[in-house]
Amino acid sequence: MLCGILKREWTDFKPNYHFLGIPLDISSSYRNGARYGPDSFRQILRSENFECVTEGGVILKDFYKIQDWGNIGVIPTNLRKSLQLISEGVLDLILNEHPFLLFGGDHSLTIGTGEAFEEADLSIHVIYLDAHLDLYDEMMESDLSHACTLRRLSEISGFQGATVLGYRFFTKEQLSYAQNNNINVISTNELIHQSDLFQFGFEIAKVLDKKVNRVYVSVDLDVLDPSYAPGVGNPVGGGISTRELIWLLTGIFRGLKTQIISWDIVEYNPTYDSAEITAFTVIKLLLESLGAQINNNL
Ligand SMILES: [Mn+2]
């Protein structure tokens, strides 16, 4: 048992939420090590002293029975095959409308998830929290680089647009691709000038809830300032704080009333973490995000 909520399978355990680790960092363009993210994160969640309670006083184990399926066995020398394995790994969860969280791993894993939605013949809108736009057509001679993730997602058959939140590192070409391909981009600067980020996220989700069939949420930890999340592959200074991300993310999850939640947290790289700052940030994000989803699905 992890933190009272994450469990391995045993008889008569009927999970209502699913957790999968993806130890992938083949497509990282700068600092490798995200493959150690899922296991490192689990190690901290296993702490005896750790309570799964939100700031609102919600005891998560009263609502959640989370099945931890362990890690998808990706192949470190074959990215294309790894994405296929990821797609196959989440397809059943998608087809059965089970809420799930994927924990990475570099951001290219989200391409595999997108391919699973395509395979399931389901359309998705992607809410993409990231310091980068990830709209390069190719990076370092690879069209599956983590810097190409949103570009590849925009090409899947059921793509119903995307909302990028918190970007601050981009090229003109990427911005113009976004404008021409139904990708709404909101910069870090625009975010921090909002008077109420919870309400801002809530309104985005409410509008999407009426307009699109399904929302997938992808959280790249580099959306945070490196002082809050030093353990990421490609840090970019000048980001939002943990508190601001909690407001934004909980607003989004609270606003997605009719959606089955499927999401990922990516780019956690423990080899560059200092004093486990990023890991504790992630745990806090996870707890508050799960708390915000309770009225929706459980
Ligand atoms: Mn990024």
Q: Care to describe what's here?
A:
- This protein has 298 residues and is α/β, with parallel strands linked by helices.
- It has one domain: Arginase, Chain A.
- The chain has nine helices and nine strands.
- It has helices at 37-45, 79-95, 109-119, 149-153, 172-180, 188-192, 197-211, 242-255, 277-297; strands at 6-7, 17-22, 66-71, 100-104, 124-129, 159-167, 183-187, 215-220, 262-266.
- It has a nine-stranded parallel beta sheet with strand order 1-3-2-4-9-8-5-6-7, with helices on both faces.
- Helix 2 (79-95) crosses helix 3 and helix 7 packs parallel to helix 8 (242-255).
- The longest helix has 21 residues, at 277-297.
- The chain is globular.
- The chain starts with 5 loop residues before the first strand and ends with a helix.
- Bound molecules: manganese (II) ion (MN).
- Residues 107, 130-132, 220, 222, 234 line the site of manganese (II) ion (MN).
- Residues 107, 130-132, 220, 222, 234 line the site of manganese (II) ion.
Keywords summarizing the entry:
298 residues, 9 helices, binds manganese (II) ion, Arginase, Chain A, alpha/beta, nine-stranded parallel sheet, globular
Please indicate the percent range of residues in DSSP E strands (runs of 2 or more): 15-25%
Helix tally equals 9
Distance linking N and C termini:
20 Å
Could you say what the CATH architecture is? 3-Layer(aba) Sandwich
What ligand species are in this complex? manganese (II) ion
CATH homologous superfamily caption: Ureohydrolase domain
Q: Average pLDDT value?
A: 91
Q: Please mark out the parts with pLDDT under 50 across 5 or more consecutive residues, or reply none.
A: none
* Global morphology: globular
Helix content: 25-40%
Profile the largest sheet. Answer: 9 strands, parallel
**Cα-based radius of gyration, to the nearest Å:** 17 Å
Spatial strand order of the main sheet = 1-3-2-4-9-8-5-6-7
CATH fold name: Arginase, Chain A
CATH class: Alpha Beta
